[in-house]
From TrEMBL, chain B:
Gene Ontology molecular function, alphabetical: cytochrome-c oxidase activity; heme binding
Stretches assigned to the Cytochrome oxidase subunit I profile domain: 29-566
Origin organism lineage: Bacteria, Pseudomonadati, Bacteroidota, Saprospiria, Saprospirales
SUPFAM superfamilies found in the cross-reference section: Cytochrome c oxidase subunit I-like
Membrane topology: Multi-pass membrane protein
Protein name in the entry: Cytochrome c oxidase subunit I
Amino acid sequence: MSAIESTLNHRIDTPSRRSKLHPLKFALYVGLGSLVMMFIALTSAYIVRRASSNWLEFSIPTIFYVNTLVIVVSSLTLHAAYRAFKREATRAYQVLMSVTFLLGLAFLVLQYMGWEELAAQGVPLKINPAGDFVYAISWLHALHVVGGVAVLLVSVVFAYAIKLRKTPARQLRLELTMIYWHFVDVLWIYLILFLSLQR
Amino acid sequence: MAPLKREEALIEEFGYDDHFHEHHHGDKYQSNFVSHYIFSQDHKMIAKQFLITGMFWAIIGAAMSLIFRMQLGFPEESLAWLKPVLGKWITVNSEGIGTLQQDFYYALVTMHGTILVFFVLTAGLSGTFSNLLIPLMIGARDMASPLLNMLSYWFFFTSGMIMFASLFLSTGPFAGGWVAYPPLSALPQAMDGSGAGMTLWTISLVLLVISLLLGGINYITTVLNLRTKGMSMWRLPLPIWAFFVTAILGLLSFPVLTSAFFLLMLDRGIGTSFYLSDIYIGGAALDHVGGSPILYQHLFWFLGHPEVYIIILPAFGIVSEVLSVNARKPIFGYQAMVFSILAIAFLAFIVWAHHMFMSGINPFIANFFVIFTLIIAVPSAVKVFNWIATLYGGNIRFNPASLFAIGFVSMFISGGLTGIWLGNSALDIQLHDTYFVVAHFHIVMGVAAFFGMFAGIYHWFPKMYGRFMNDTLGKVHFWGTTIGAYCVFWPMHYLGMAGVPRRYYSFDSFQTFGHFDGMNKFITIAALLTFGFQLLFVINYFYSIWRGRKMTTKNPYNANTLEWTTPIEVGHGNWPGKLPTVQRWAYDYSKDGIDNISQVQPTLEGESVEH
């Protein structure tokens, strides 16, 4: 913990900085940019492959749509948790953080059910890349959600373990968590729209 | 005109006090052996770690090329003496003549490419100089996130260890070419190296991508956020521009490679068919249907082409700086240099299919890629013109650094011109997959990037260790390497024009290539000698760390950039007191009759134009 703590507290105080954006936040945005490239690559590959012959037609499981709602709500609760943090409302912060974490877990479980539904629909692996792409893209997304859920778990533990105080370092950490979680949320919205429209 | 003050006095007078040293951050970075030398978070130490790890890989990768070159040049000579090292990969016949196993020949070619491209020229070159120079040249205490910076090195290290381990597998390392095209890479049963070797290869490269992304995020953030007062983007020294754009290229292209590998892993691991279709192995049809190996090539080369600029851009930046300092002249066309870097970076993303002209892409689409490929010659020519114009009329100091920088320009011209040939899809019908391609890319991105790296190492060695490398050994190294490299790669153009294919183990069954035996021998001898000169460099490097001539002044080259205003022994935080404030660009050499004016010097009375 101490290494991360010290990185966050490391005073980066350079006079020519014009923007108010903290360098670590900026770094996170840059990193998310590269994650975006990863998914752009996969979805472009999907478009290219779909254009050639032998493409299996099937519909996206309903659970995936329901799940979109779950992750959007989790983003909202996380945002509410952030506002509770800024007010130093301990109880509200603890509850909202836990709810966000549970919604994150629920998203993963529902995704798993979605894959099972897909398989039950007769879209197994190994038959046609059309199905493979849906699995692969949603797996890779889920992997990034797992990372987000892990960070949320840490936040929940800290929400209960230490007294809530609005220090700049902790606010920054929460903001970084929030940026990442909103990112996986928006990414999923893009992916579900892409997968349902590009059929 | 006001007299020039010493730089430390100027920093004291105009510098910016960030109260850095009141916080004692430095202690936690350098308190004991482990935090100072191993898990260091100091950018200068991390740079040295990258450099020495890169050197380790360069020696391994180059030694591999010598082994396969000996087999190619002297197939009738015995390689039995290599048996203690290579073991079962050397087969000794009844007459006692040892030859390299054919499978292992492919493994060596594959590993040579992988190691040199990814471990030496990407991680080693950019990792070393971005880390060393970005904070020092922009006037920052350290990187934006020293922790991520440390992780970047250790991901690189782990990735290297995994690749190294794969060399010792009983089935051998991956052997399907460094580009890892499916189906060879996607089917574990395709050949020995495609089994465990390929699994480790993929894991290793994914870890390497993570390392490069962590590094790249840091470089971009640092350049944009941590420049000292007065250091506007248009006052940045050119190496920083180059490292910055390199990091952006890497950040946009490496994730695409990860996606390609992700799908490849699924094809290998759980039997999906992204890249595979209608394949028969041992007479039996596999149940993979509907995939396309071309898809992999598109994804791979979307990284693969920017990758060559990721390799060469840092060399561009280093050479620009070294030439300007050693010609005692401002860099010619500073803005043109920056814009040409940006133009090259942009074009890098829209030319990838020129690696695939013969893979079965639509010839009409190929035309589009031909045109953009040829346009790259324009910014490249701008750069070459500017380097030559910088040298023209200069008061040139010939030291190893400047010699290697000049050698870089020579190599870049020689290799760049053949790029114009290869960029034409029609010429590729003859030239693709021949030694012409090997000659082209080795000169323009292999040797040239190495020359940039050597120029940088000789130039900034005093900044890293407080001592100089030996000049005489350095000059011998330069001449040996220049002549040697041309002797190795120039003849390959003729082989390629005659159609000799690359990656072949032997040309016995091709009568038409028989008369190239002598040339092949010549190339092999030249390669062995050139490698010998590199050992000279390694000896010089390690000897000079402890025994080199000591630095007695802060600024031995009378250079203008900020790294030469730091103490000889640079501690954590780089400047002992205030941070320097930048007053001008980095290239005021021989201006108004003054030899050099440091970046911390405010405008002098009666000074002509301002930058």
